[in-house]
Amino acid sequence: MVTLADLQVRQLGECRHESPLAKYIAARRTNDHYVDESDRVLFDDTVHLVQDHGVPLTELPTLEPGGPRRQVFFPPGRTKVGIVTCGGLCPGLNDVIRGLVMELNTHYGVTDVVGFRNGYAGLVPAHGYEPIALTTERVASINMQGGTILGTSRGAQDSEVMVDRLVELGIDILFVIGGDGSIRGASKIAAVARGRGLDLSVIGIPKTIDNDIPFIGQSFGFQTAFTVAAQSIAAAQVEAQSAVNGVGLVQLMGRHAGFIACYAALANHHADFVLIPEVPFALDGESGFLAALQRRVAERGSAVVVVAEGAGQDLMADRAGTDASGNRKLGDIGRYLEAAIVGHYRALGRELTLKYLKPSYSIRSVPAKAFDSVYCVRLAQAAAHAGMAGRTDMVVGRRHNRFVHVPIDIVVSHRNEVAPDGDLWLSVLESTAQPPEMR
Amino acid sequence: MVTLADLQVRQLGECRHESPLAKYIAARRTNDHYVDESDRVLFDDTVHLVQDHGVPLTELPTLEPGGPRRQVFFPPGRTKVGIVTCGGLCPGLNDVIRGLVMELNTHYGVTDVVGFRNGYAGLVPAHGYEPIALTTERVASINMQGGTILGTSRGAQDSEVMVDRLVELGIDILFVIGGDGSIRGASKIAAVARGRGLDLSVIGIPKTIDNDIPFIGQSFGFQTAFTVAAQSIAAAQVEAQSAVNGVGLVQLMGRHAGFIACYAALANHHADFVLIPEVPFALDGESGFLAALQRRVAERGSAVVVVAEGAGQDLMADRAGTDASGNRKLGDIGRYLEAAIVGHYRALGRELTLKYLKPSYSIRSVPAKAFDSVYCVRLAQAAAHAGMAGRTDMVVGRRHNRFVHVPIDIVVSHRNEVAPDGDLWLSVLESTAQPPEMR
Amino acid sequence: MVTLADLQVRQLGECRHESPLAKYIAARRTNDHYVDESDRVLFDDTVHLVQDHGVPLTELPTLEPGGPRRQVFFPPGRTKVGIVTCGGLCPGLNDVIRGLVMELNTHYGVTDVVGFRNGYAGLVPAHGYEPIALTTERVASINMQGGTILGTSRGAQDSEVMVDRLVELGIDILFVIGGDGSIRGASKIAAVARGRGLDLSVIGIPKTIDNDIPFIGQSFGFQTAFTVAAQSIAAAQVEAQSAVNGVGLVQLMGRHAGFIACYAALANHHADFVLIPEVPFALDGESGFLAALQRRVAERGSAVVVVAEGAGQDLMADRAGTDASGNRKLGDIGRYLEAAIVGHYRALGRELTLKYLKPSYSIRSVPAKAFDSVYCVRLAQAAAHAGMAGRTDMVVGRRHNRFVHVPIDIVVSHRNEVAPDGDLWLSVLESTAQPPEMR
Amino acid sequence: MVTLADLQVRQLGECRHESPLAKYIAARRTNDHYVDESDRVLFDDTVHLVQDHGVPLTELPTLEPGGPRRQVFFPPGRTKVGIVTCGGLCPGLNDVIRGLVMELNTHYGVTDVVGFRNGYAGLVPAHGYEPIALTTERVASINMQGGTILGTSRGAQDSEVMVDRLVELGIDILFVIGGDGSIRGASKIAAVARGRGLDLSVIGIPKTIDNDIPFIGQSFGFQTAFTVAAQSIAAAQVEAQSAVNGVGLVQLMGRHAGFIACYAALANHHADFVLIPEVPFALDGESGFLAALQRRVAERGSAVVVVAEGAGQDLMADRAGTDASGNRKLGDIGRYLEAAIVGHYRALGRELTLKYLKPSYSIRSVPAKAFDSVYCVRLAQAAAHAGMAGRTDMVVGRRHNRFVHVPIDIVVSHRNEVAPDGDLWLSVLESTAQPPEMR
After folding, report:
1. Which of UniProt's keywords are assigned here (chains A, B, C, D) (predicted)?
2. Is residue D409 part of a domain?
3. Considering its fold, how many domains does chain D have in total?
4. Cα dihedral angle (C35, C38, C42, C43), rounded to 10 degrees?
5. Looking at the complex, does the CB of residue B209 fall below 8 Å from at least one CB of chain D?
6. What does the alpha-carbon distance between residue A311 and residue C78 come to, in Å, rounded to a whole number?
7. Which terminus of chain C is more solvent-facing, meaning fewer CB atoms within 10 Å of its CB: N or C?
8. Are D226 and C370 an interchain contact pair (Cβ–Cβ within 8 Å)?
9. What are C142-198's pLDDT values in tens digits?
C-alpha cells in the first residue's frame, strides 16, 4: 500500500520570495486562493478502504494540492525556463506550451523561456537543434494548430549531457511534456541535478492519448481523441449499414488501456462490439467473438466492431508464435481480425462486406477541443506554480477535482486501466449488449 | 452540516426480483459490478474538514452509489415507464431519452415506455397532448438531433392531476429530465404518490445548462454548451481585432452561476474580461470596469469581454430602480454594458467599434458533443438502475468519479456556484489577467 | 465533334397533362420559370471554338435545359416512382432521395414512391430484398445521416429481369443514383423498356465522388469529399512538421481523375506535392519525384505529398509486371510510394519520419455539407421535372449555371479529367511550387 | 446592352518582361497554360440572346480571361506591392492576402509586399497606421484565422492623398479587397494615378458576403457564410419543434440580395418561409404572410421563417414613415416581424413560442471553409497575374468556369440579385412550399 512518505514531493529548499500573485488574493476577504501547506487531498475516498485497513485518519495517504504558493522558490523576473515536448503527438501540446509561457510571463514576470526542439534530442548539442525563444507573441495563437511547434521525437538521451546543456543555458526550471518514458527521463534529469547539488526544478506534465497514466484524472487530449475517434465509428457504421451483411471494423489507439475504445463507442451509441486489452476474448467456438458477430449481423443486418490496438494480443501469440525479443511488439489486431472475419464468412459461404478503418494520425494531430483546451491551460498554470515554488521530480495531476502534485516514482509505478469489473466497462457492456464473456 | 440522514434515499420497499443483469456479472471472477448495499461514497474528501469537525469516520456524510442492484424492486418485463422533459433546451436531452429507452429495453426487458409531450403539461389531460410510444426504433438516431423529441414547456402543473394521470396509464417509474423547478415538481409528485400509498418511483435527471445544480459533478450538456459558447468568443475576438479600438462583447448564459462564461473564456484563451454573477464589479472609477477596459484596449488595440447574463445585476438596480414584484427578473446586462461602454468612449471623444453577440439559442439547440453523449448515456443507465431498484424522490448525480443517488431535498437546497476564492476563478483571473477586484 | 443530334434527349411522347407547378408561375409577371421548348444552352462557350470550326450559330451543339415544363407526360397524383442507389457511398445520397420524394410528393402529388434496396440487386426478386415505401415522414431527416438508407451494392444485373420487376410493380419512373457503370445500366433498362414499347422513364442522377463524369459541372458530394480530405492533409502536415525530416503521405480517391487531390491540396494550402493520374511522373533521376522530395524536405524540414489512387500506375507496371487479365486493377500507389521514399532515405543514410494516411471511408460516409446539400436538392428537383415530363435515357447535369438534360450515351462517352494544361492544374502547380515536370 | 468596348480592360502599356512562370509551361507539350491575347470568354451564353439581337458573332460581348501572360508589365523581383482590406468582415480575407503574398513571392520573386492597416484609412498618413511587411512566414497560417490580419474600416478617403502615399512608398500594384464602395474607391485611385501619368496598377478583388456583385460567379466567403447560416436555421428549427406552436425566426444578411437566405434555407431543408428583398410580401390579409404562417403552424405544429435583412422594407415605410435623409437606412425587419407575429397570435388568443436569432457576426468572422479557401487562393493567383501584366482599374471575376478580368465600371453598374423568375427562387419555393405570392 502507498504510504504518506511515498507521496511526499521533493522540495529544493526554503521558499523565500514573495509571490507576484498576491494581487489576486490580498484584496479578497479570505486567503483561500493560497494553498495552505498543511492541506492535503485524500489519496482514495471510499470509506471501506479506510475501514478495511484500519489506518488512522491522520495517516491516510494524501497528495499535495497544486496551486500558487504565497512564497515561491525562484525569484520572479529572474528565472529562466525551458520546455520540451516528447513522444507521439497528442491534442493539446501547443495549449500547454502556450499556457506555460503565458502564466510565467504574465504572473511571474518570467520572459526568458526557451523551447527545446524535437524532444530530448533538442537537449543534446550533438544533434544541432538550437532552442527557440518562446515569447507571448510567438505562442499567442498556437493553440489553433495541432501537433507541437517545438517538434518531438521518441527515445531517451544521456541525462548527464542534458544536465550539462541545461546548466550551460542557465535553465532553472525544465517542463517536460511527455509520456511514461519521457517522465522517467525527467526523473533521471532531476536525479542527476540533485546529485550535482543544482537548484534545477524538473516538472512533468503527463501526456498520454490512451489515458493510461494514473493519478491525473483524465489525461489532456483524451476527450478530443475519443471525440474524433467516434467519428470513425460513425463512418464505419454508415458503411456497414449501407451494405449487405456489412461489418465496420475500427482499430483505435490503446496499447495497454481501452479507454479511447470505450468512450468513443459510448459516444457514438451504435457500436456492437468493443474489444480492449483488459478483457481477453476467444475468436472461435459457440461463445467466441466470431459466432457472436455472426449472430449480431444476422439479427441487425450489419455490425460495428471497435478494437483497441492492444486487444487480443494473446490470440496472435498463440497462432503466429511469440515474439523473440524481450521488448514485446504489438501484433496488428485490426488486420488479424479482418482476416479472421473474412475467413469465417468465406467458410460459411455467406456474403460479407467488411470495411476496415484505422484513424490513428487523424486523431493525434487535431487541435484540442474546448474541454481539453481548458484543461491544458489549467494544467500549465498548476505546473508553473509548482516549478516556481521549487518543486521537482514530480508531475501535475488532478484528483477529486483538485490539481495535485505527484512524485514521478508514484506516477510510473503502474498504469491506469479499464477495470473489467468497474462501471465504465459495465456501461460499455450495457450499451453494446455484447456478450460479457467471449471465451 | 449535512448529516447521513439527510442523504438517505427513499426506498419503496423490499427488492425481491432477480436482476436480469446477472449475465454480465456471474461469469466474472469478482462480484464488484454489483453495488454492495453497505458501500458509501464520501460526501466530502479533504482531511481537514473531517479533522476540524471531529466527526467519527463511520458517521461521515456519504452518498449511495448508483449502479445495478442484484435485486430490483419492479418486475423486469412487466414494468411501465414514463419520461418527461421540462424547461429550456439543453444539449443531450435526446441522448438521455435514448439511453433510458435502450437500457430499459435491452437489459430490463421493459418495452412499455411512453414519452409525455411538452413538459409537465403532457401529464395534464386538459392540454390534450397524447403520450407517444418510445420504441428502440423510434429513438435509435435521435441523439443526432438537438432539442427534445418530446417537446418541452416551462411551468408547474397540479401534482394531484399528474399522479391521477400516471395511475390511469399504469406508470410504475417516471423519469423527469429537468432543472431546479422541475426537480422540485418531481419531488411533489413523489410525495403525492407516497401519500396515496402508490408504488410509484420518481427519478430525476438534473438538467441545467448553467451547471448550477450541486452534487452532480458537471451537468450534462455543459461541455457542449461552453464549447459552442467559445466559438462566439472567437467570433467576437476576430471582429474586435479587425477593427480600430475594437471591443467584442459576448453575453452568455448563467443566471446565478458563471460556469459557462469561465470555461468558455478559458477554452478560447483570448478573453480579456470575464464578468460573472458571483463576483460583483463597479463600472466607474479608476479601478472600475470601464477604466480597466479602456487601459486594455489602449494596450492591445482591442479587447474581448465575456459577461454571464446574471452578472452585474446590482448595477442596474442602482440606476433603474429595483424590481417591483417579488419574482426578480434579470436586467439585460449585455445591452447595459454595451450602452455604458459606448457612452464612456463617446465621453472620451475616442473612436470605438463595439460588436455585441448573444448566442443563446444556437448553444441550447445543438446536439450533444462526444463527452456529453457518453455522460448522458451513463446517467440514463444509472437512472434506469435506480428506478428499477425502487428508489424514488431522488436524482442521479456524479461525485468522486462515481454515479450516486441524491435525495431531491438535498439537490434543491442550494445552487452550485463559481467560488470567488476557488481555483476555477483563479484560473480565469490568471488567463485574462483582468484586475481581480474592479470596485 | 459532338453534334446537335447526339445531344437530343429521348422523349416518350406528347406532354398532355397540366403541370401542378402552375401555381408558382401563373401569378408572376413573366413566364420565365417555365422552360421554353426552343431554349437551348450552348454546349461550349469560347468564341474561338466557334470561329475555328465555322459552324453556323444555329447549329452549335446545345443542351436541353432542365426545369419544370408546363405540360408533363405522366399524370400527377397517379404516377408510381422507384428509386435505387448503386455503387460506392458518396456524401449526399440521402439528400437526393429526400429531394426526390419531397418534390414528387409536394408538387406532383406523387405519393407512391418506393426505394429498391441494395442497388440493382433490389430489382432482382431472386435476392429477396423487398422495396420499402418512401414517405415524406420516412425521409424527413435522412439528410443528417451519411450513406444511403436504401443500401447499395456494386455490379450489374439482368436488364430484362429488372424491367419485368418494374412492370410487375407498375413503376412509371425509375431514378437511378449511381456512377458510370450504373448509369450505363440505366440506359440498358431504358432500351429494354423501349424495345417492349413501355412508357417507362429512366432518369439518372450521376454520382461520382471523383468528379470524373462529364457534363454535370461538379458532381454532388465532391465538395464535401475534398473538404474532409483536406483535413487528412492537415493531419499529415501536423505530423510531418512535428517530426525530424517528416514526410506526410496522403492517398486520396481518384482512380482516373485527380480532382479531389487537387482541390483538397488547394484548400489545405500546405501540400508540397500533388500526384494525379493525368500527369505521369518518374521516381528516380535528378528531375524525378524522390530527388524533388528530398530537396523540399532539406529546404523546409518536412513535406506533404498528396497522391490520387490512380496516379503513377505505370511505375508499378514497370517494376512489378503488367496485369494479366483484361480488367486492369489499380496498384496501391500509396504503399508503393511509402516503400520508395523509405528506401530512398535509407539508401542515403538519412533520418526520415514518414506518416501514411488513407482516409477513404471516412470521406465517403459523411453527411453532405451545406453546398452539396443545396446542390442535391436542386438536382433532385430537376430530375423529378425531367421524369414527370417523360424524358428518359438521360441524366440531369449542370452547365453554365443551368440545369440541363444530357443523353446517357454522351455522358458515358468519356471521362472528366484534370486538364494538364488547364487552369486548375496550373493553380496546383502555383500553390505547391512543385516541379511541373518530374520525368 | 453591354458592348465590347465597355468590357475592354485598361492596360498601362506594352508587356516587355518575360514571365517567370515559363518554367511551368515550356516543358509541356502545348502552350495552353498561357492565355492567348485573342482569346475571349463569351459574356452571355444563351443562343436566343444572340439570335434576338442579331449581333454578329465577332462582335458579341466577351471578357478577357484571367491567368498568367507570357509577357508581364512589371519587372519580376523589382516590383513593390500593397494590399488593403476594406469594409465588413467576410470569410476568406486572410486566404486572399496569403494567396497574393505566396503567388507574388514564389512565382514573380516579389518579396516587397506591404499590408495597409484598417482599410483605406491605412493609406492616409494622418491616421498614423504604419503599413506592415507581409512576408511568407507572416502569412503562412493566417488562413486558419477569421477576419483580416490587416484590420479593416468602412468609409472613403481622399484619393489624391492615397495616391501621394502610394507614390511615397513606391508601390507599383495595389490590391484592394473590398465591396461595392471600396471597389469604386479603387477606380478613383486608378483614375488619379492615370491623370498623373503614373504606372500604378489597381486591381480589385470583390468582397461581398451577400453575393450581390455581378460578373464574379459566386463571391468568396459566400459558401462559408450560408453554411454557417444554415446552422442558425437548424437551431431555430430545433427550438421551434421543441415548443408548443413554436416559431423560429432567423434574420440573415442580405441588404439587397437574398442569396444567403435562399442557399441557407435550401441547405437546411426545413425552412417553411424565406423572405428576400427581391420578392415583396404583405403581412395581413388572407393571402398575406401572417395567415400563411398561421396555417403552416397549425398544420405542422411549428414553423421556421428565414428573412434577409433587406426584405420587407416597404412594410416598415408604410407603417413607420419613410426615412428622412437621402441615404436609406434599413429598418429592422427581424424585430418588426417578431412583433407582428407575436401581435397576431395575441390577437387570436393562441399560444405561441417565438425564438428570434440573428447570427450576423458569428457568420462574418469564421475562417473560410474548404471550397472558399480554394476559390480565394485561385482568385488571388488570377489577381496577381493581372497586376503583374499591368492591368488596372479592374477586378478579377469568374464566369463560365474561367477567371476573367472585368472593368470596374461594369462591376459597379448594377447588383447581382435573386431573379424572382429564375431557377434559384423556384427551388426555394419548391423546397419550402410557401405560397409563391403573399400579397
Report:
1. ATP-binding, Cytoplasm, Glycolysis, Kinase, Magnesium, Metal-binding, Nucleotide-binding, Transferase
2. no
3. 2
4. 90
5. no
6. 57
7. N
8. yes
9. 999 999 999 999 889 999 999 999 999 999 999 999 999 999 999 999 999 999 999
